[in-house]
From TrEMBL:
PROSITE patterns xrefs: PWWP (PS50812)
Bias kind Polar residues: ranges: 94-104
Family: Belongs to the HDGF family.
Protein name: PWWP domain-containing protein
Organism: Acanthoscelides obtectus
Biased composition, class Basic residues, residue ranges: 108-118
Amino acid sequence: MKTVFKEDDKVFAKIKGYPAWPARVLSNDGKKYTVKFYGTGETGVVKDSDLFYYTKNKDKFQKPLKRKDYIDAFTEIEEAIEKAGGDGDPDTDSAANDSLNGTDKSIKTGKKSLGKRKSTSEKPPQEDITPKKKKPTKDSAAETPAKNAAKKKDDEETPVKKAQQRNRSQGEKSDVDEKEKPEKQTRRASQKRNKKENDDLDDQDVFPTKKTKSTKDESKEIEFVTIEGEQTSPNKRQDVDSSKEKLEEKSDELDFKVEVVSEKSLKYNITYAKHVKESESLYKGRAVEPREDYINQVLPIQLPSGTIGGLKLHTTWPLKFENEYERALYDESVALRVLEAKSEVTVSSDSSIISNPELFIPDIQMTLDEVKQRICKKEIEWKNIKLKRLTVEANLVSLDAKIRSCLGLDSANPKEAIGHLEEMRQLIFDEIMLKKHAHVVEMVRRLRKYVGNAKEWNMPEESLNEFSTQAEKVRSKAEQVYTKFKEVVKVPEDIEGGFWEAFSELLNTYREDCKGLTEEQIQLLCAEPRSRIAFLDTLDENESEKENSSEPPKAEKDGGATEVNGSAEEDH
């Protein structure tokens, strides 16, 4: 059954490149949810299949990370849940209410229980967590959620009192000193103690004699972050995973999805940076172009043992840059560092880089074939994207020719032209396509005033009336298509001469930027001529031509670590 989340529900949200992150639901547009992330204050749009209620999934998704914003996120969401009385999950809120009722009674006898606890040690007392009863079955454990929730709620609602009681029993601090402590620090410290105590209590309540699964194995459960997430039902997700998620769960040691890059792409980044430096002022004025960035983006290296490790690209996260010039220089510095590290690791397997977790992942949990397949897959995906774009452009040009043919000077078929105009309106095109084929924009612009050549055709009055009606529909449909052109090509509204004049200026700039390109390169453009994507596409085409015109290099044997080569054009 599909889970429907409500506004203000407390959840885990999965975003590509990050672990499942505590968040609050802001709104729902029917297909996706807008959420606000705790710890960072940022908002994002997430599919319902990538949202999970916080309380029941905390043990599954919480990672032992030391990032401040990650730790703060859990502190903030737990405070919000405590204040709201639950995370909004209808399956757990009833149990939470029962636990609140049970907590009132435990608070009254709190001094007595605290006295027992201080007489032993900081650890939970054995007599409390190892009840002398038979090991409960799965069914019996499921029948008493309120009882377990009450115990946990009692520990969570009195962290300050526990800390004060411990300090009084040890004679370390007075009541006045305890009150003067910042409440936030006390709460965080207490929550960490309570979390450990509650985990121990839960483990020994359910498995009082022996454990069927080690806590180490439990901590190794990895949830890789993807945009296209999938979900069964929240209660069955731990037992029934989709085949896609199983394929992605390649690592028991990593907190994030590993993304591999090829040595070729790093060398391309160095070449691109040299190109950017030649036009520094131009690229300093440009916004940062989108890239595929991952916190664990690595250059795969095959170690002598056969294990595939990874040289990490990014040593700081998140990445922030003011302009494309800064980003290009950063990519260059990363590429130079990683390629130099690759050479060092290749020469000596005892390199200090391998033992540095900030620079190297010892095992990315992939085989050599899997790495090559992933790199090859990226290349194929990018080529498919380019092919789809060029197919759309071909359809755009084809429809332009058909419309012109339907509305000739000697005869006209306005009904057919209207159909072709509607097909054109349905196409998914972008600004660069319209610049490459500006004659299409010009044709549609003129059709907004189409009246035909009826006077020269000597049409009967009845036919003339029908033609006039169809001609009006042509003008109306052309106006709709032209309006879509305006939506795709963003120009200032107050510019003198309107959209066409503004588009003409953009067209002049585009043609100026294309001066250094061949006709074939212009036809294959999938981005602005002086953009990073266009540069890398041209570079890759040139490299492919060189490779095809020369003999393939002979493989060299190397006893040290080796880089896993790939010819993919990834990271667009």
